[in-house]
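Teaching note: in complex prediction, the entire set of molecules is handled at once rather than each chain in isolation. The prompt given to students was simply: 'Predict the structure of this complex.' The entities are:
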Amino acid sequence: MFSRSSAASRAFCRLVLFALIPFVWGCGSSSSDESGADGAAALEIAVVPKGTTHEFWKAIHAGAEKAAAEFDVDVIWQGPQKEDDRQLQIQVLQNLISRGVDAIVVAPLDARSMARPVEAAVARGIPVVVIDSGLESDAQSSFIASNNYEGGRIGGQYLAEQLGGAGKVVLLRYQEGSASTTNRERGFLDALGEYAPDAELLVDNMYAGATMALALQVSQNILNRFPEIDAIFTPNESATQGMLRALETAGRAGDVTLVGFDVNPILLDAMWDGTLHGLVVQDPVGMGYEGVKAAVSILRGGAVPERMDTRTILVTPDNIEDAEIQELLYPDFDRWLDN
Amino acid sequence: MSSSVLSLEGIRKSFGPVHALQGVDLHVRAGEVHALVGENGAGKSTLMKILSGVYRPDAGKMTLYGAPYAPANPLDGRAAGVSMIYQELVLAPHLTVEENVTLGDEHARYGWIRPRTREVERILGDLGQQGVAPDARVSDLSIGKQQLVEIARALLFDARIVVMDEPTSSLAADDTQALFEAIGRMREQGLAVIYISHFLEEVQEVCDRYTVLRDGKMISTGRVMGTPVSRIIEDMVGRSVDELFPSGDHALGDPLLDVSGLQGRRGVPANVCFTLRRGEIMGIAGLVGAGRSETVRTLFGLDSARSGALSIRGREALRVAWMTPRAALDHGLDLLSENRKEEGLALNLSLVFNLTLSDLRRYSRAGFLQLGKERRDGARWVDALRIRAGSVEQRADELSGGNQQKVCLARLLQQDNDILFLDEPTRGIDIGSKAEIYKLVHRLAQQGKAIVMISSYLPELLGVCDTLGVMHKGRLSAVRPVPEWTEHRIMQFATSGYDA
Amino acid sequence: MKKPRNYKAMLSEIGPLLGLIFVFALFAALTPSAFTSFYNVKTILTQSVIIGIAAFGTTFIIVSEGIDLSVGSQIALTTVIVAAVLNLPGGDPGIFWPLLALAAGVLACTGVGAFNGFVITKFRIVPFIVTLGSMQIVRGIAKWIGKEQTVPTPDNWLTNLMLIDPSPSWLLFGPGVWLALALLVVSAALLKYTVLGRYTFAIGSNEQTARLCGVKVDRMKIVIYGLGGLLTGVAGVMQYSYLTVGDPTTAVGLELDIIAAVVIGGGSLSGGEGSVVGSIVGALIMAVLRNGSNMLGLPNYVQEIIIGAIIVGAVLIDQQKHRLRTAG
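The expected output is the structure of the full assembly:
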């Protein structure tokens, strides 16, 4: 099967070796630095985000590192790249369990799929703190998240006020199976019904999908289908950005009231420009910080609450310059992250 | 020989044990069309490949315009003014005429191609082809026009000697005339054309002089005008049938295979009928492309048939159109492919896999292979046919041509069917292996099998077969006992379809 | 003459295995002892199950000089079908319904595979194009059945197949690992010791020869693609077990990992070469790389670069093999 290819396989092995060397080198040296500084082996706490491409996760990472510095532990930051790669997140969790980390802080991509690996971790004596999105399991020690329902309500109320109680509204959902965004959507719909009972809901069954590119396509299709829309709510960062871009390409940015969820620099610019009218903002730095903090206190024998809410705050062009909001919007990443 | 623009003297070339060329001379003058004729295997192709730089001669010298000429590769040859027009066209079908003609010599500035339409038009005009538009897509042209495009390409590269290998073998009559006109114009411009063809009537029509090759030697050369065709044919085939061929009688028995009205999808074969008896070795002669292989392939279900029936052992007739190779094998037919490497063998599989592939039913039980039995039988055939191989596990592509052919034959022997179609069974193998194969064929006939043997090498057909038919453009002549044929008569039917 | 060739052939046959040992040893030397722990070995084996089982089927297809790009989509389809059947009214998570769901998923993929084979042979379209098309079609059907969402399912025994720690602990490995092992033995035997396997090699090595020798090439190809689909379906059930939900967007691009596993394991894209054992070794090499990279804490992109290099390396080997052959 591999006949006469020993030369080729040797060449191949060499290739693999060369491919590995730089990474192994970099990794090996950095880990030895860390352990050398401490002397004693520090606690290893793995933080597994849903993805690594959104600004939101960067903030979680910053919060986690902040806690790591404060409590003198090591944070391992690993996760799937795309926010729909359930399989990869399971594998990452399995490998972390196998590696024998001391605790895991995870933002589950799927409330059901991640239950098994989390239970496996707990069974092997690794405590798990769930952040951001819920998990259909009772194995985890603590669940720390924004009150997403409340966040959705804040957004819904603000949107209703902007509409003046009536108008044509679009809800672009994020993805099925994501508990956090489903709660936001529910909160939004409840508040809308309460504060703007006469509003007409044009769409509430479309899903933006995991990436901004997908969200953009779906948004363009919605905008093409409904020439008259007064207001739109989008329940996460990629959906908001996709919708914003779609409004821009359709030349309708600013004409339609857009209220989004989560934040990144592009969305903030849009708010300065007046094309984005409201953002419900979480406190991801706080969430990352609290997650690691909870993990540390479990490991050090302390008690943690089963459920903990982190803040959700409405940012509008009116309050964006407030100091408190500014600190939330522009966390000092450089202080905590290398890149 | 001052008038020669190209002289080849004492050219020798061997491929292993095969002496393809044994001291060939060829002299071509400016402004002449020189026919190079000879049977398949006479060494024409080898000679032309040496001329164009594909091969290098083992010995001998070549001079071009008085200067020594030793091309290292075909590009070298082309640069020196020697261009080849091959049987299979080498054009890019999606490009236009102009793009094809200038391919490899585009005039460009900063990467932008500057058109050479004028030049291309002029060359096509010189060939009498004003009708061909430089911007036509090559795939839209007839085969004949495509060939002229290829000649135009040769002329653009300032060819002084143009070699054409069987240029009319796939042309319709109109296109042939256009080609002859183009050749005539090239002659007027002082180019030398070497024209390789089987069709002697064409040679008479367009050529000035001829050279006959046989068995890698130059037999005769002279002016076409004034030389009778029969003389050229004699030079091509005239050789004694030596003791290569086995003697000893085998009786012809009852009819085994009866073929009637065999008609191929593309008109080849055309209404072929014959009867094959037990113990009979029937030869089919004819030129390349006459439909010999197509006849047996159609019968075997490899090529699709339009109509025709065959009856085996006098039983009811089967429709050839429904035949598949599996059915043919099950009905007692078997076929040795003329194309060993592309069809006959699965080259990266082992010898024994190739040997048993058509008969795995014998080597399996409930779908599971009996590898031990398979290997034992394989080893037996390796011994019986004296196949030179390390083991039965050796891969087919590691064997020599003769041994590969023996593996193909061993598969047929192993299958042990009664009606065997052997398509060019001795092509490309050395004399020793050839003799072994002749003996084997004879022995099979003595066992009462019926054999159809196709060959382009007339002496072997005459030496081995009991009966012989000749094909011309899809038609099969009457099948007659070999003694009733003369080589002259065979060549006549093969080239003209006229049976005297 | 004979001896050195056999020695060489043997050495090269175990080439992929040497590669696996090399990669494993490399990570064992670089990572904490956790890498070589029994638990981690179990983890790696479990993570190779899906790609491994699918690679068994793809091995047949590649040996016959075909390719199937729709494998990833087929796996997604299976997870959705399994979930849909489990959610049927009247369904209950006993023994029977999960079995029915499993059968439905596997059958669907077998059908997709056979359909691919049918289109390839009937209309003489190259496998690459046919399966490129069915990759999209099948993905679309999966999304359609799943209504573009993940399909949650009630707890049932299927979801226990891919546990790293099996529930009766004397099993040592999860049932999925044992199933993969069983299928490995069956597939390897099929390819090596049956007429089906021999014909697969013959078609891949030289389709014309196979035809000449009376092999019903078209029918065989449909069988081969169907078999590929069947094994892909089993892999899909494992994927469902892994995710515990039906996910129409799962396994995007997984076919490329699977093809890579086959090629790394000695399969030749020009047909006639490949082995089931080699393919599982290829799958293990990739799983070890992923696991080891996680252990070392290397980011995703590093894994991608390494695995990409391995794929190119494998193709390099494939080419070099052929160059050596034509030269010799």
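Point out the following to students. The domain at 148-282 of chain A is CATH 3.40.50.2300 (Rossmann fold). Chain A is about 50% helix and 15% strand.
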